[in-house]
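Lecture notes, unit on binding sites. The following record was shown on slide 14. It pairs a sequence with 2-deoxy-2-fluoro-alpha-D-galactopyranose.
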Amino acid sequence: MSTADSAVSGRAEALARHFADVFGAEPDGVWRAPGRVNLIGEHTDYNNGFVLPFAIDQSALVAVRLRRPGLECAADAVRAASTYSPTGQGLSRAAFSTGGLEPGAVSGWASSAAGVVYALGRHAGASVPGFDLLLDSTVPVGAGLSPSHAVEVAVIVALNDLLGLGLDGLEMARLTQAAENEFIGVPTGIMDQSASLLGREGSALFLDCRSLESEAVPLPLAAHGLAVLVMDTRVAHSHSDGGYGARRESCRRGAAALAAQSLREVPEDADLSVLDPVTLRRVRHILGENQRVLDVAAELRANNIESIGKLLTASHVSLRDDFEVSCPELDTEVEAALAAGALGARMTGGGFGGSAIALIRQDKEQSVSAAVLAAFRDKGFRRRQYFLSFRLPEQAGRRRKDSGAKEKSGPVKGPLFLSCAEGKGFEPLVRGYRTLVFKTSSIGRSDNLPPSSLADRCISPKFDQSPWRTK
Ligand code: GAF
């Protein structure tokens, strides 16, 4: 077992123990789903286009126990708790019933679990009984690395397994997308959950969002002395804010004006001059981005990793100028990283905040990070007192003080860096877990597992004894 796998097992074990503290019984199992970084292919998924994300080590774990008959709760009652709480204290708790769930009935983090139950009932004909669930996630919230999709995937994998539904990865991807679109009400595409469900270790996932055919494209960064640096702007963003939906609508309008079913079907020689200027820019981004994904995938297949840098940067320029989903913080990160020697850089994810990524030589990690920090300071952007350094497993989630912090009076804020590189010297880039399943029976109780640095977060805080809301 690799060190990273051991750390995850330790985390899962700790979560199972925590679950028993909270709910008074062992869970049926612990399931895991990773977050993702999108290498390239932005806003192309809901246009039937191409994407190239990779799964990351940061992941959501859920411990689940199906409801047993008893007096304690109604048979369809769900009691859910998360170790993440906005105050950093205690658990965030929620309760709902699996029966008669209507869109929007549950809000907050638990809507991800409720949405999955809703989609399973509505689209897979599954009758989901009540259950207890404890969530622990290391996917940073608000950094554009798909924390909510990771939760949805972990929940659907757990329920698929426990209820013997026999769903395959693609079916689960479609169902979690339905959960997002119909229950939570955000019009997202299918990229994020596919990356979580289908990602492979050491590879990016090339996905054709029209046919849903996928291919694991090798991404041997370490062999080339490279790394992908993820730089969180700390600018909060949400796909329900309107900007995401507006872009989607522009694309729909553009396709209709070009008499195409979707922008994927627009022929190369289409006359874009029939489009109004804004729609023209949106369409131009999608057409160019699809080609860039194909080009990046081709370079990776040919083992020309360094060559993808300029395509990543071209993607950013297009997202900034044509699709207009960047923001000054993202642009600053990209420009500063490039000026400091990154081979390419771009915003990643839906935009309007979140993270940018930079393809860098491993020995440039410190200098690129420092340059980005300095640029943030120069522009007077919000800065944060600590970086979170995610070099799994040993330093996972550990806080690393920014040396510059001491020079400032009061809290110093800055972007969050997440360093991903595969192989020796660096911790794994693309673990690409195909949603590993850990059951309590297979986790074992081995004392020789190294203590997980994440386990600290899983140890039960004093559980508030106030009764669960039940039906
Ligand atoms: C978000 C969405 F969830 C994805 O479906 C995708 O559209 C992405 O933004 C933009 O590429 O992550």
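Take-home: The mean pLDDT is 80.
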